[in-house]
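fyi for ur records
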Amino acid sequence: MISESPFKVYNASAGSGKTFTLVKEYLKILLVAKNEFEFQKILAITFTNKAAAEMKQRVLKTLKDASQNVENNIVVDLLKETGLSSSIVQEKSQRILKNILYNYASFHINTIDSFTHKLIRTFSLDLGLPLDFEVEMDTDPLLEETIDLLISKIGEDKDLTEVLVKYTLDLVEDDKSWNITDSLVSVAKLLLNEENEVEVSKLINTNLSDFTALEKKLRTYLNDTEKAFKDIGEQALAVIDEQDIAYNSFTSSVVPNYFKKFVSGWNDKEEEIATKTVEKCFDTGSFYAKAKPKDPKKLEDRDKIDAIQNDLYPYYELSKQLIATQFGQYFLVKKILKSLVPLAVLSHINKEYTQLKEENNICVNAEFNRVISKQIKNEPVPFIYERLGEKFQYFFIDEMQDTSELQWENLIPLIANTLSQGNGQLMLVGDAKQSIYRWRGGKASQFVALSDEANHDLFHVDKKVVTLGTNYRSYSNVINFNNDFFAFLSSYIKEPAYQDIYAQEKHQQTNSKEGGYVRLEVFERDEEFVAHEVYPEKIHQMILEIKSKGFYYGDICVLTRKKNDGIAVADYLVSKGIEVISPDSLLLKNNKVVQVFVFLLRWIENPEDKEVLIQVLYYLYNHLNIDIPEHEFYENCLSKTNTKELFAYLELEFSLTNFFSLSLYDGLEYLIRVFHFQDISDVFVQAFLDVVLQYQLKESGSLQMFLSYWDKKKKNLKVEVAPSENAVQIMTIHKSKGLEFPVVIFPFDLNTEDINREKVWYQTHDTDLFNDFESFQIKASSKLSLYGSQGENHLNKISAEIQLDNFNLLYVALTRAEEQLYILSDTKKKKADTPKLFSDYFQEYMSQKNAEGVYEIGNSERLSTIKKSEEDYLLKSFYSVDKKDNQIFIVQKESNEDDARLYGNLIHNAFEKVISVKDVDLAITYIEQQGLPTEVFSSAKKLIKDVVNHPQLSEYYKEGLEVYTERSFLTHSGEINIMDRVVFYDNEVVIIDYKTGVFNKSHELQIENYTNVLVGLGYTVKEKLLVYCDDLVKVFNI
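which gave:
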């Protein structure tokens, strides 16, 4: 490959042509390589399915353009950088494109999740996983079901019952919801978070009784500590009260108020004790003001104060000592007790969770990285490649800043092995400023370290760091504003390393697109300010103004940090007659027609449910154009005694018997025909039918089970639609990553240092008070520093991380705009001393520009050419016909040849299940399930036993052998060979190939080909056996 270095890191700021560069470097490998199947040696990893699809599409399109000599900017660069002539590039592109399309499974541009899934599938036997496991991406329903199962155990397990009941009562006492499900689901998510693995592994191996004993000990500590505080306070106040001294006779009542706080305690409020003023009183001995008071009582109390002054000092010293030794720990214990019960039942949650997965044959995608790290990563790299059936020489990793530490660590052995051989390459692409998935394990610091050109510790090869310095996305005014604003913002970043990254942003170069418009507005709140009322109204006016400048609604995207902000904006715009495309509007469960389908299914499942029937009738009244008053229609329908009468009244030919005789999918099509939904060309209905079909293919449950499945999944089921020129797009910043829009509106304010949703693991292993517990997860707050130096370190770290997260989100939001950018925020009258909110930073920036309220750059008239929208090919109606009406019949022609082929496939499938002799019953059960004639079944059953017990074969079916059945092996030419059975003895192997019929020379050539593949992988072939599976088993040793 043409490259100055085997290890390249690309710093790719927003709009800098990242995908262009990835595709160019990818194709450069293919064009200069002698092997036209070089693409099979490249593993390109992206973060999302969309990004993977886009890169694949760009690679194929560029190859197509090059093969047809069509103008393409990537091809122009490739000609310059490879030195190849256009005719050679054209010819090679044709052949490479053909090879990719013919071997598409070896076109490895994948998401990181799909690659880890492939690894898990490959090693499923080694991991003890069922071969046909289902991958679960949506973990929330699984965890919710886990907690439901746990709660159902209340009354069965005495200890668990006592703990959960007490926890529920504690929540009620704290004026919180008695429903413990949410808090238990929250702690259950710890099982899936790879960053919590060390702490969680310790907790799930701890008995409930240990937690109970700890809770008792901690509550005793709290009582003792509170008593100690209270005793000191009461004794000090008693000294004052005995002399009948008024508390306000002391300077600002400081001294008595100090001791009063010890008596009253802190309840749940974490607050520091005001010690500076009282400390000054005791240090100077000045307990009252020097000026002579007018109040006779205060004057009289002066002598009394002087008399008791020395008596108060011992209590003050004791109080200081108690504060120094117990104050922080006291609050820490209270914090730990609040999270102790959920952590205590984590072991029980894990048990239910594991059992639920096993019973449903489920593997969770979120756990794959951990499994690979523990059980696959440390295998010899050649062995991993052998099992995968492919070996990679080039690695492309996109969005490196969002790749988790564990994902990266799992890839390092494969990459290191390749680079150490001197013929591979690694290319990382990322941008620390766009790291917005810390909660999912992505850390900007990882990419920052990798992009340090001086750091060669990892692979010990030359590394080159390249900065893609030009923004090709936006117009010049948008680019210059972002350069200037984020350079200004860099001085406020707490982490020095990231200060430099943002400071360098001012150097991003503009492109040929001159002009554009930026408007930054910070308005002042009034006394009755309600964000979800004020912002949507202002955004509506802004959109109307933008439209008047020549833009379509579809050119505009409103980006929000929080989902509920987007919902508020969408609701308002819809109320004003503006169409929107938002995550909420795309959910299947929010579509009226889908809702009717679900109501219909619920009613069919339970015809006695009148509430559901009302919902169906409400829709049918308009859909069927009923011409009687609505109330009368409902009354008539509800008066019918059975479904037959009801449908006769509605003049609909529906039969419950017919519905239940069909599959669920066919039943829904039956409903479409009966209720005349064919004319509704609704993408939501199509998507709902797809959901039903997918469920039917995976499950074989009843209608009731499907409705249960729907209830679990509906919150995430949505349609994927292309943008429309007539609809404003509304989405969260996270969803917008990687996208661009002609006009972006970014509204609402945000606290960049709000840490209240964060949690930390507080280490307690060096404190006897906590028995043998080493750490606890507690909620973060601004008072973490009260707990001591560890708490202060946690606070500083989290504050810096949250600030960077929010600055990165702001960067992603403001760099989505191509031509126009609108920023809208609010502020209170009182200016903050230290900037924390987005609006604070916006105001500071505007003050530097001598602007107040509004800051504008450029002209708001549209500059870009209006693109013609492509012709839409829409389904005008839904085509649904009863299968019986199609008059299509499949007639099977009898053929001995076909029967022999089917029988051969059956035998192969059965032998695939036989790892050892103990699996014979499993294979026979499989054959039995195929519904074969008794004679054929008996023959197949006898054959399986005869092969396994054959004198020449039996030793290869013993238990404890390492065996692969029906395993794919990749040849050097790119062909895939599937071997029936391979038995491994260290570096020696035995190949067994099952055949039906008579001996054929081609069978011998085939097994010799298998031999060459295994020899190429470093194995010695001990025996090559052709096994002919007929009435009499014949074995040929080749």
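The CA atoms of residues 28 and 78 lie 7 Å apart. thats all i got for now
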